[in-house]
Amino acid sequence: MSETTEEATLGLIADIPPGFIHAFVASLSVIVVSELGDKTFFIAAIMAMKHSRLTVFAGAISALGLMTVLSALFGYVATYIPKIYTTYIAALLFFIFGLKMICDGCTMSEDEGEEEFNEVQDTLKRTDEDADVESQTADPAEVQKRSKILNVVRRITFALFSRVFIQSFTMTFLAEWGDRSQLATVILAAAEDVVGVCLGGVLGHALCTGLAVLGGRIVAQKISVRTVTIIGGFVFLIFAMTTLIFE
Fold it and tell me: How confident is the model over 119-128, as pLDDT tens digits?
């Protein structure tokens, strides 16, 4: 690499605002420690065992990316409140989240990850069984009536997206709604650079979801959700302090 290219690269790095870097790192770190061993992680892992990994990943990351952007927008609305208030509120909430994660981690069993994995697996199995029972016991006339109404919508939908994609997207979106990582994204966006929060959050979700679809069962058996939760608690505490420092 020539000196001119090196200087240009260093110049671009130097031009990146510190607030963006802090927001990006904070969002990436918080998402990773929140999502490893979480319900959305295991949904992707279990679905990837039976379906195309790429399709499951695409559906899950689409849902998580959309959720990240929506959460960041919710947080951005709060920026109309004087920044000093949002900064202190964000730091306080991160501090509370951190303490709660540490307390939760200390009370968890060592096989918490495997238990969560099995719970999600049972939920997905019941969902599939309920769908089969409904299709078998439904009144033929009613089914035909509903089919006429929904047939066009279904054809258009499935022409654009596969059933696996839609299931992965829907289940992930619903599981993520109200989750700790969503609330953390809202809080970060209220106090930090919104673009940095979005990019860091999406990358964090992509890393966790990619790990889930590639080896979710192995991760569930090897990873200690208890340890990750405790570490995550300390990460939240660290960013509670850095939020005040970078205020």
Answer: 666 766 666 6
Classify residue 12: in a domain, yes or no: no
Instruction: Kindly state the tokens that stand for 24.
Output: 């990006």
Task: Give domain status of residue 163, yes or no.
Answer: yes
In a domain, 6, yes or no: no
Instruction: Dump pLDDT digits (tens) for 11-25.
Output: 444 456 667 888 898
pLDDT tens per residue, range 210-245: 988 887 666 666 667 677 778 878 888 887 887 777
Structural domain for 171, as ranges: 20-245
Residue 87: exposed, middle, or buried by beta-carbon count in 10 A (0-12, 13-18, 19+)? Answer: middle
Number of domains in the chain: 1
Residue with tokens 């939920």: 123
The alpha carbon dihedral of 27, 30, 33, 36 has a sign of negative
The count of other CB atoms within 10 Å of the CB of residue 118 is: 14
**Does 111 reside within a domain?**
yes
Q: How far is CA 64 from the centre of its chain?
A: 5
d(CA 105, CA 96): 14
Residue located via tokens 């295991």: 42
